Amino acid sequence: MERTISAEERIRRAEEIYQRRKMQGGVRVSSSNVNTTGKVEYRMFKKLILQIAICLLIYFIFYLIKNSNYIFSENVINKTKEFLSYDINFQNVYEQAEKYYHEHIKAYLLQKGENTEQNQEQENEANNKEENNNQENEQGNEQGNENVQENTEQQNNIEAVNETVEGGIGGGEEGEKLLANETIVTSADEQANEQVAEEKQLSQMEIDANDIKNNYSMILPLKGTITSRFGPREPTDIVSANHAGIDIAVNAGTVFTAAMEGTVTFVSSEGGYGNHVYIEKDDVITLYAHCQTIYVKEGDTITQGQQIGEVGETGNATGPHLHFEVRKSNRVVNPELILSFA
User: Fold this and answer.
1) The predicted structure's pLDDT at residue 88
2) What's the confidence (pLDDT) of residue 41?
3) Of 178, 220, 234, 261, which is least surrounded by CB within 10 A?
């Protein structure tokens, strides 16, 4: 008679068998219970679809190449053959490059070096001339002092002669001596004055004004009443102590013109000048200030006599007028040394 095994016993035995098999190399599972056929068929189908797509793509590319009239047109093919058949002579290319270097680049560098040396020589000559001029001026000053001393001695002699003549007025000899001495004094004074005039050096402003008059053309920007000239003046809360230009009073809105040609380098409404504009040519600047309206803008090329604005009283102004100013190398120049505003 077989012994009946309880359910708990069966479970316990099954667990022991499982543990033994696990210790021996893993649990064996029958392959008949695992369904892998579906996965394998899916992978093969996917691979087949991918291969078909690649073949279609390759076929499409070949079709485009074969039927394209541009990529492999006769013109492109001929140009390619012509380029491939062209034989480049590198020796000839090198010789031409070397020839160009010697004829152009090297000649330019040599000329530039010579110009630099010439500029240096000219600068040295100018320095030497300046030193010589300084020495001549010193000698002239010494000679002028000697002339003044001689004139003083001659004046003393003349005073002594005059005293003698006063004691005997009417005598012919004494009168002739007096006339002769007066002639000597007159001649000596003229020589001294000429010497001083020759030795007198011009101020920097006069030099700048002469340079502008000799090298540039300048006209009056406006005709009107001169209300303030260049130089020192009585200052107020509005009026500055040293006037850098000349003020021409007219009615507000009167159009003024450019005194000389140039380029507009600055237009602004800031500061005491109010609306003002700079026109520059080389190192010479003409400035027009206190404008009501300005017609031009920065970068404009201006011709002499061109209308550039209207007179106003913007900024620090006591009435409508045009402040006209001239500068050379950023040094102010009295406009009346260049133009007549009478």
Assistant:
1) 63
2) 73
3) 234
